[in-house]
Amino acid sequence: MIQLWLRRIVLLVLAWSLVACAAQQATPAPSTITATDALGRIVELPAPPERIVIGGRANFMLTDALYLFPDAPDRVLALTRATQQAAAFAQLLDPAAPDKVRFVSDSPAEEIAAAQPDLVLLKSYMRDAVGTTLEQLGISVLYLDLETPEHYERDLATLGQALDNPARAAELWGYYRAILDRVAQGTAGLDETQKPRVLLIQYTDSGDGIAFRVPPVTWIQTTLVTLAGGQPVWGEAAQGGGWATVNLEQIAAWNPDQIYVINYTGPASEVVANLRADPQWAALPAAQAGQLYPFPGDFFSWDQPDTRWGLGLLWLAQHIQPERFADVDMQAEVYRFFGDLYGLERAVIDAEIWPLIQR
């Protein structure tokens, strides 16, 4: 009798062993995640990152792009201090942001590595300054450009790869692609005589006084004007690698049909109001024709290669070619951007976003 029970126990153990082995064979081993970054590097991750650090300069563009992915805020370990109310917008998307580690834009690699991230996001031009050392310390680094519409298509796909969410990346690029297609259709068939001469300038007020600057011809600000059906007038003055200072005499010589003013440190509307009250500026034909505009923004200006560039393009198209874009409803576009892309409720948009746009 005892021998019979022993045989049954042995058979049961063998049966359970076979079931366990079969289950192990049926469950695939976790596969490595690979993402190709802006420098063409293939970055391998054992799993979707759970401790992400966003570092270096121009980091708010990285944060805003990453936070387009719904689960990204929970994966971010540390942010880097930035300008243009970056902290306020990050907190709107990530209530835990104030409690997260904060680096400065020039924090050394060793300081970042001490936080033990499993992925660091940097702009591509930050590789020499900090990225290479992080790589040597064994930290996975993903470099993004996020400077042009073409970069956005590629870099959103890279983030989708790293977060194991390519479907969301495709959805996000679909939003931008639809805007580009809409603007291309609206400007189709324009000849040069139908394109107003446009000046886009950045206002700055530093310790050295007030200055106006124009962007390089290769930057997104120039691209947006061209896509929206305008002729940028500042090409010859902006062949370098950064904003070029111009004076009122040069602006008057260009004699643009329209002038758009950017302000990264405060409301552009206040700057434009002061310019309209200035006799020299008021004498410009564009000002006399009511064609001197503040470039809109909320926490960030819409002209730059932040996630808001699609809003900036639509707004510009509506002003540069008003007859062709009369059907653009910017209020609806704002709700769509912050609602569909960032998941913000309409009440939050009304309370936190609209007052900044309308100031």
Care to describe what's here?
- With 359 residues, the protein is an alpha/beta fold.
- It has 2 domains: 33-181, Nitrogenase molybdenum iron protein domain (Rossmann fold, 3-Layer(aba) Sandwich); 189-328, Nitrogenase molybdenum iron protein domain (Rossmann fold), CATH 3.40.50.1980.
- Helices cover 46% and strands 16% of the residues.
- The strands form 3 sheets. Strands 8, 9, 10, 11, 12 and 13 form a 6-stranded mixed sheet that branches. Strands 5-4-3-6-7 form a 5-stranded parallel sheet.
- Helix 7 (149-162) packs antiparallel against helix 8.
- The longest helix is centred in the N-terminal third of the chain and has 25 residues, at 2-26.
- The relative contact order is 0.10.
Content-based structural category: alpha/beta
Termini separation comes to 91 Å
Indicate the mean pLDDT. Answer: 91
What is the CATH T-level topology of the largest domain? Rossmann fold
Number of helices: 16
Q: What is the H/E string?
A: HEEEHHEHEHEHEHHEEHEEHEHHHEHHH
CATH class of the largest domain: Alpha Beta
Key phrases:
six-stranded mixed beta sheet; 16 helices; 46% helix; Rossmann fold
Q: What's this entry about, in short?
A:
With 359 residues, the chain is of the alpha/beta class. It has helices at 2-26, 59-66, 72-75, 86-93, 109-113, 127-136, 149-162, 166-187, 220-227, 248-254, 268-277, 279-282, 285-288, 309-320, 330-341, 346-357, and strands spanning 33-36, 42-45, 52-54, 76-80, 101-103, 119-123, 141-144, 197-206, 209-214, 231-232, 244-246, 258-262, 292-294. The strands form 3 sheets. Strands 8, 9, 10, 11, 12 and 13 form a 6-stranded mixed β-sheet that branches. A 5-stranded parallel β-sheet has the order 5-4-3-6-7.
